[in-house]
Write a structure and sequence with these properties.
Blueprint (H helix, E strand, L loop, with lengths): L4 H5 L9 H6 L1 H18 L3 E8 L2 E9 L4 H13 L5 H7 L2 H7 L3 E2 L6 E5 L1 E4 L2 E7 L2 H9 L6 E5 L7 H6 L2 E4 L7 H9 L3 E3 L5 E2 L3 E4 L2 E4 L3 E5 L4 E4 L4 E2 L5 H13 L11 H8 L1
Parallel strand pairs: 6-7, 7-8, 8-9
Antiparallel strand pairs: 1-2, 3-15, 4-14, 5-9, 6-13, 10-11, 11-12, 13-14
């Protein structure tokens, strides 16, 4: 209240949950709900809506189909079919391969609270937690060796020489690099949760700093590769479940698919296992 959109975008003002409007102005909230329903019915999709209230009058400024994570996209698609707004075929067409991959990766347990200390590019979706390790060889030894520890590889940037360490890590964090950098390409190819191009951190030999805070080797950190978040400490991470809305969507896919997969060999190790 008593703020402009520019204030919210600039971070000058913290917006309240939309539910607060219901208690502050029930009449405007009811009008807003009705308009949201009209827009969703018209566009047959969940809408991101900009609005303002001036002199107790509601103005809708613009709307567009809202961005969403993979799990959210699946739930929304299934819900819209259940409400009779779209067909099963339309729901399947709306779930891109990238969104589907997000549903197959570990995620932070819904409702968990955590301390985001930096943000970068969401180069590899999924969630990871472990101790910060700054050397790829050491990450490979700890992650895949006898210790079998959960590690997060932290590098200024990565190169092919870091591949073993990346594959042994739960996640990867880099100071430099974009969505097509080595770290990002490996992350998406092997399903490694990764935050790349996190320019607000400064990576050293055995630590990184962010706003005067030092994270040393062995300190526990977590990554939300879906949103590009770097998190202090550990967070509860859960494996994906092929149930609920996701299971429903896969059932619809089975009804219409014409392509069958017999094997899926990604690495030499996997190939040997499949063929043995």
């Amino acid at each position: 209240m008593n703020a402009q959109g520019e204030d919210v975008v600039a971070g000058v003002r913290t917006p309240m949950p939309i539910s607060e409007l219901k208690s502050q102005n029930p009449e405007i909230y009811k009008q807003f709900e009705d308009i949201c329903d009209i827009l969703e019915n018209h566009y047959k999709d969940m809408q991101d809506i900009e609005f303002t209230i001036e002199h107790n009058k509601l103005y809708i400024l613009q709307c567009r189909s809202g961005k969403r994570t993979g799990p959210a996209a699946v739930k929304i698609a299934v819900d819209l079919v259940a409400e009779g707004r779209i067909s099963k075929e339309t729901a399947l067409a709306r779930i891109s391969p990238e969104l589907l991959v997000q549903c197959l990766l570990p995620v932070i347990k819904p409702g968990a609270k955590y301390d985001v200390i930096a943000t970068g590019l969401p180069a590899g979706p999924g969630a990871a937690t472990g101790i910060a390790i700054f050397d790829a060889q050491r990450a490979a030894e700890l992650g895949k060796g006898g210790a079998g520890q959960k590690v997060v590889l932290v590098r200024a940037d990565t190169s092919p020489d870091d591949l073993k360490g990346m594959l042994a890590a739960q996640g990867v964090l880099t100071e430099r690099g974009g969505m097509t950098s080595h770290a990002a390409l490996v992350a998406r190819g092997f399903g490694i949760p990764t935050v790349a191009g996190c320019s607000s951190i400064s990576v050293g030999k055995d630590s990184f700093t962010i706003n005067g805070r030092v994270i040393k080797e062995g300190d526990e950190i977590s990554l939300n590769g879906t949103l590009g978040e770097v998190i202090a400490g550990t967070v509860p991470v859960q494996d994906p479940e092929l149930t609920g809305e996701f299971g429903t969507l896969l059932g619809w896919a089975d009804e219409t698919r014409r392509l069958g997969i017999r094997t899926n060999a990604d690495t030499p190790q996997t190939s040997n296992w499949l063929l043995s």
